[in-house]
Design a protein that fits this description.
It is elongated and about 80 Å long. Helix content is 38%, strand content 28%. The chain contains eleven helices and 15 strands. Strands 1, 2, 3, 4, 5, 6, 7, 8 and 9 form a nine-stranded antiparallel sheet that branches. It has two domains: 191 residues, no CATH class; 90 residues, no CATH class. It is found in: Cytoplasm, Nucleoid. Its main location: cytoplasm.
Length: 334
């Protein structure tokens, strides 16, 4: 991922321990610095795996902030990246002045991937480690903890500038234990939160399960389409991009590329055209399928333990909620 601009500032508690202070970087990092490029890419990959909130800049009201104006100035060259990053760092220090534990290195990067440009903000903590010096002796060595982000955000500048209706182009870390940090980041971004990624992902998986059941695919086709959905979602997760319903529909059924999309729209699941994938929800999704002796069974893994139970001692499946269509057939038989 090409790195267009990057800089690292420092946040520390003041001597009286009552607020955060900013030590601004003396200059930008070199754009072709391989170490900085590697650091930004590593942090970006870490960010992609974390639970996030999504939304867009608030246009007016108390939620709106100065970041939009700063970005506009930066985009037209009215201020440079150093000025933009310093303004962001100063405002973040004010928003989090009581959260002294967030002290660390504040990295800001302007990146490009393909046709998409993004602004990435991440607070990185330093930890003590062990290294080997030139005389092959073990010595203390400070290291950046790139695997445990607690405060970070990303703005898809390309989507923001295109003014796509309903686009969720701002994301931020939304860890359960970091509510105050998330609130501070939302205030800095001046955004209004929109899509609930876990809920939207769950609804998408429910829509997919309904589609598989309605189309009555055989076991092999069902597994293939499940794998296709999960692979696509994980790839978008790795790239840090949302899933697009139309693109997913074409992958799920290449022979009828609009079939799944039409199923979602006709059944009115209320899904957004673009859905940020939620890693935790995806990791719990799997379909169990089996066929033997004239019996074919297929169900989502999340149903096991609730509406479906497996008795291993007697090798029995207990279905507590019989599907309506099957129930009607059984009733008619009687």
């Amino acid at each position: 991922m090409p790195l267009l601009q990057s800089i690292v500032h420092r946040l520390d508690p003041s001597l009286d321990g009552e607020r955060l202070t900013l030590t601004a970087a003396p200059s930008l990092a070199e754009s072709d610095d391989p170490a900085m490029t590697s650091l930004v890419n590593t942090l970006n990959d870490t960010y992609n795996t974390k639970a996030k909130g999504w939304g867009r800049f608030a246009e007016e009201g108390e939620q709106a902030g100065p970041l939009v104006a700063w970005l506009r100035d930066y985009s037209v060259g009215a201020q440079d990246f150093t000025q933009l990053s310093t303004a962001i760092a100063e405002r973040l220090a004010r928003e989090l002045q009581e959260q002294l534990s967030v002290s660390g290195y504040l990295l800001l990067a302007h990146m490009r991937q393909g046709d998409t440009e993004t602004l990435f903000i991440a607070l990185v903590h330093q930890r003590e480690g062990i290294g080997i010096n030139q005389t092959h002796q073990a010595v203390p060595a400070a290291q950046l903890n790139t695997s445990q982000l607690t405060l970070a955000a990303r703005v898809n500048l390309t989507q923001w500038q295109s003014e796509s209706p309903g686009a969720q182009y701002v994301s931020f870390l939304k860890d359960r234990g970091g509510k105050k940090l998330a609130e501070g980041m939302v205030a800095l971004l001046g955004m209004e939160e929109g899509i609930d990624a876990p809920a939207e992902t769950r609804t998408l998986l429910k829509a997919f399960s309904d589609y598989v059941e309605k189309e009555d695919f055989d076991d092999e086709a069902s597994r293939e389409k499940t794998d296709t959905l999960v692979d696509y979602a994980n790839e978008q997760l790795r790239r840090g991009e949302p899933m697009t319903l139309e693109e997913l529909s074409g992958l799920v059924d290449e022979q009828q590329p609009k079939a799944f999309y039409d199923h979602i729209r006709n059944a009115d699941y209320g899904l957004s055209p673009e859905i940020p994938p939620d890693k935790r929800t995806l990791s719990q999704f799997r379909r169990f399928t089996g066929r033997a002796g004239g019996v074919s069974i297929s169900f989502d893994s999340h149903l096991l333990g609730s509406s479906i139970e497996y008795d291993a001692t007697q090798d029995r499946l207990i279905i507590k909620q019989v599907p309506k269509q099957l129930r009607e057939q059984l009733t008619k038989k009687d």
